[in-house]
Design goal:
Blueprint lengths: L1 H10 L11 E5 L2 E4 L4 E4 L2 H4 L8 H13 L10 H14 L3 E5 L2 H16 L3 E5 L8 H5 L4 H4 L9 E4 L4 H7 L4 E6 L2 E2 L5 E2 L2 H14 L2 E5 L14 H4 L5 E4 L10 E5 L1 H4 L15 H16 L2 H17 L4 E6 L2 E5 L3 H10 L2 E2 L1 E2 L4 E4 L7 H15 L2
Parallel strand pairs: 3-15, 5-6, 5-7, 7-10, 10-11
Antiparallel strand pairs: 1-2, 2-3, 4-12, 8-9, 11-12, 13-14, 14-17, 16-17
The chain binds pyridoxal-5'-phosphate.
The site of pyridoxal-5'-phosphate has 15 residues, from helix 5.
Family: Belongs to the class-III pyridoxal-phosphate-dependent aminotransferase family.
InterPro entries: AcOrn/SuccOrn_fam, Aminotrans_3, Aminotrans_3_PPA_site, Class-III_PLP-dep_AT, PyrdxlP-dep_Trfase, PyrdxlP-dep_Trfase_major, PyrdxlP-dep_Trfase_small
Keywords: Amino-acid biosynthesis, Aminotransferase, Pyridoxal phosphate, Transferase
Length: 381
């Protein structure tokens, strides 16, 4: 193991603080390191691998498409892209879609569309929101540590306090092109928006005529016990940004918009070489079909409720979230992650005190019970 870690330290750009294991394979909710140790994966590639590792249905469909056609660019029509857009229309209720290769690119597309359609420049985002690392998405990302070294970024951007109606009212105005938000803040540790807060955004939208962008990169595709977090809240955005679970870990993202917005877009406003290629779209379609056929949205809700109930039996502060997007607060998140790792469970620390749990949506009670017993030992460490 150490040999590989040493080799990485010489050739990889050191952007990440990594967990010191080299993962070689996976099956379902479990992954295996190169020494054959197994771990229950409650990270799922950061909320991506919704149908489980090495899912045979997905692999078959991936193989079939790869044998036929991998890439031709958006200069041509391909069947999987059209089928995926039709499917997304069904599950999101939005009208038209464009495909990208990541979450940050989906946010970039959303911001560009918002500026083009409104003719306005200003974006409003929220304290603790995370939207990605490219220049536009980074501009609407809260954490100063991420933003500061790369200024000047896209301007003007104003950050309102999350869940503060008073702060929101002071921040939006007639110059606002769009309000962008995560309905459940993921990278900051799974903190949901209040319904009243979201409702007020939509009332202010009526008054000032800005667009609302829901960043559902992390919350989409069944993660929260609904297809999308917007279904929990009952509000429809003008623009939705998606990625992560969309391809079960295969890189694909997307942006969805209303027909009304589409009427204000011109050819050439945006583009991508790889975005929405036939292989990525076929994998995404297979992922959505697997979620549908195996009732994974329902399982996410049911197992999420069970997981939270069991976590509440332990000594955690503030067990929260929806479906299988779960956050808990501990005194020292890094020590907790190390304890879990040593005992065969992968969890992710999003801050010094916040733990995020986002397993494959195929997880069952037995696996949850396994995690709970590992966490219980931490109580008595
Ligand atoms: N938006 C949200 C809500 C995210 O959670 C993330 C990634 O964690 C992103 C955007 C950026 O996605 P990516 O890392 O695929 O660029």
């Amino acid at each position: 193991m150490n040999d590989w870690i040493e080799r990485e330290s010489k050739v990889y750009i050191q952007f990440f603080n990594r967990i010191p294991i080299v993962i070689e394979s996976g099956k379902g909710c479990w992954v295996y390191d190169i020494e054959g140790r197994r771990y229950l994966d409650l990270v799922a590639g950061i909320a991506c691998v919704v149908t489980g590792h090495s899912n045979e249905f997905i692999i078959e469909r991936m193989k079939k498409q790869a044998e036929k056609l991998i890439h031709v660019s958006n200069l041509y029509y391909t069947k999987p892209q059209i089928e995926l857009a039709e499917k997304l229309r069904e599950i999101t209720g939005l009208d038209r879609f464009f495909f990208t290769n990541s979450g940050t690119e989906s946010v970039e597309a959303a911001l560009k569309i918002a500026r083009k359609c409104t003719g306005r420049k200003k974006f409003v985002s929220f304290v603790n929101d995370f939207h990605g690392r490219t220049m536009g998405a980074l501009s609407v990302t809260w954490k100063e540590k991420f933003r500061k070294p790369f200024e000047p970024l896209v301007q003007p951007v104003a950050f309102a306090d999350f869940n503060s109606i008073e702060s929101l009212e002071k921040t939006v105005d007639e110059e606002t092109a769009a309000v962008i938000l995560e309905l459940i803040q993921g990278e900051s540790g799974v903190y949901p928006a209040d319904r009243e807060f979201v409702k007020r955004i939509f009332e202010l939208k009526e008054k000032f005529d800005f667009l609302v962008i829901f960043d559902e990169v992390q919350t989409g595709f069944g993660r929260t016990g609904e297809w999308f977090a917007k279904d929990i809240y009952g509000f429809q955005p003008d623009i939705i940004a998606m990625a992560k679970a969309m391809g079960n870990g295969f890189p694909i993202g997307g942006v969805g918009i209303t027909e009304e917005i589409h009427g204000r877009i011109d050819k050439g406003d945006h583009g991508s070489t790889f975005g929405g290629n036939p292989l990525a779209c076929a994998v995404s379609l297979a992922t959505i079909e697997f979620i549908e056929e195996n009732n994974l949205v329902k399982n996410s809700k049911k197992m999420g409720d069970y997981f939270r109930k069991r976590l509440s039996e332990l000594d955690f502060k503030n067990v929260r979230g929806y479906g299988l997007m779960i956050g808990v607060t501990v005194d020292d998140a890094n020590t907790f992650v190390s304890h879990a790792l040593k005992n065969g469970v992968l969890v992710n620390a999003t801050s010094e005190k916040d733990i995020r749990i986002v397993p494959p949506l195929t997880i069952g009670k037995e696996e949850i019970d396994f995690a709970i017993e590992v966490f219980r030992k931490f109580d008595k460490r």
